[in-house]
From TrEMBL:
This is ABC transporter substrate-binding protein. Belongs to the bacterial solute-binding protein SsuA/TauA family. It is found in: Periplasm. The lineage of its organism: Bacteria, Bacillati, Actinomycetota, Actinomycetes, Mycobacteriales. The keyword DNA damage does not apply. It comes from Nocardia lasii. Residues 43-255 form the SsuA/THI5-like domain.
Length: 358
């Protein structure tokens, strides 16, 4: 499974953010958490942003084959993050949740994913045909880890029928490359940095940026509509903290990478972090990419083609938004905002909240 495949289990509380005892007057949200996955929620915890907030996380996990959007609909968790194709599927199935904050974007030097071979391998960006007859190691299917590389390879003349895609746990892919059992592996941060630090063993062949460019990588934060209806102001505060954390991480790449290593258990001096969408604002272009990706190399559910990003996502809970509407693209979101742009939750057709006039 991908570290962002949005597949989680309803398990007993394993860790309460900012302390183990619940504080009266604070709204808590059950956050679907994987111990080795990067998360702005956990980075915010390390920075102390939840400490005095009126909304705080309770972490639940670990991962299983139950989609997070289904658990949101069932009221078993409150907020999660994961690949947007899972959100599209969830809406087709009628699950009641809404995407309320953006996450990572791709940059050439901070990709969503990177693809590594054994050092000295003939498989390179300029020799992709060399992967034919070989094995790609990945952590799951129907997510970013398989869809992006399949499209990239196919668009560069590789016959996918001649490539074996082998599912392995994240931590087993690199050792399999070393042993020669896997010829190319798919990796997310923080492991990308770990492999980059070992050029005698591994070589980076290409990245996800080579396929979907700067608009790619989105795995927005999604919340159950029931929780949003019950706690709209807490949801607004949550998005504000996610935005603050994203902006801090982008401005402090070294420090945020060290926190990424600390929170996931990898060597802090070797890890890398993602680049995040400024101000946590959501846009149409980076979400629309998922319809195109699944249509080209995935298996879209019937009815998915009738949906649009605006049917799933909104900026209504973002204090840095001037409208609940999605931006057209992240090209409209290049300035870091240090002051709130509204004073309340904005009206959206996706969540029925009593008393909203805007």
């Amino acid at each position: 499974m991908s570290v962002l495949s949005a597949l989680f289990v309803v398990a007993p509380l394993v860790l309460a953010g900012c302390g183990s005892a619940k504080e009266e007057g604070v709204v808590y949200f059950r956050f679907a958490n994987s111990p080795t996955a990067l998360s702005l929620v956990r980075i915010a915890d390390e920075l102390g942003y939840w400490k005095d907030a009126g909304v705080r996380p309770e972490y639940v996990g670990p991962a299983t084959a139950v989609p997070a959007v289904q658990l949101l609909d069932q009221g078993k968790i409150d907020i999660a993050t994961g690949m947007f194709n899972n959100d599209i599927d969830g809406k087709v199935k009628g699950f009641k949740f809404t995407a309320i904050a953006s996450s990572m974007l791709d940059l050439p030097d901070k990709p969503h994913m990177a693809y590594f071979t054994k050092a000295g391998s003939p498989i390179t960006k300029d020799n992709l045909k060399a992967i034919e007859g070989k094995t790609v190691g990945l952590s799951g299917f129907n997510s970013c880890v398989d869809l992006v590389i399949m499209r990239y390879l196919r668009n560069n003349g590789v016959d996918l029928d001649k490539v074996k895609f082998l599912e392995l746990k994240n931590e087993l892919i690199a050792p399999a490359i070393e042993r020669g059992e896997v010829d190319l592996g798919v990796f997310h941060p923080p492991l990308v940095g770990v492999l980059l630090s070992k050029p005698d063993k591994f070589a980076q062949a290409f990245t996800s940026y080579d396929d979907w460019g700067p608009q790619g990588g989105q795995a927005p934060y999604v919340a159950s509509n029931a929780w949003l209806q019950k706690h709209p102001q807490a949801a607004r505060e949550f998005v504000g903290i996610i935005a603050k954390t994203a902006n801090w991480a982008n401005a402090h790449p070294k420090e945020s990478a060290e926190i990424a290593g600390k929170t996931t258990g990898y060597p802090v001096e070797q890890t890398t972090n993602w680049h995040y969408a400024p101000n946590a604002l959501l846009d149409k272009a980076s979400l629309q990419l998922w319809w195109d990706l699944v249509a080209e190399v995935g298996d879209p559910l019937p009815g998915a083609e009738k949906l649009t990003p605006g049917d799933i996502a909104t900026n209504a809970f973002n204090p840095y938004a001037t409208s609940a509407d999605l931006l057209e693209s992240q090209e409209q979101n290049t300035v870091i905002l240090d002051a709130e742009q509204n004073d309340t939750v904005l009206k959206t057709p996706l969540v029925d909240i009593a008393g909203l006039e805007k």
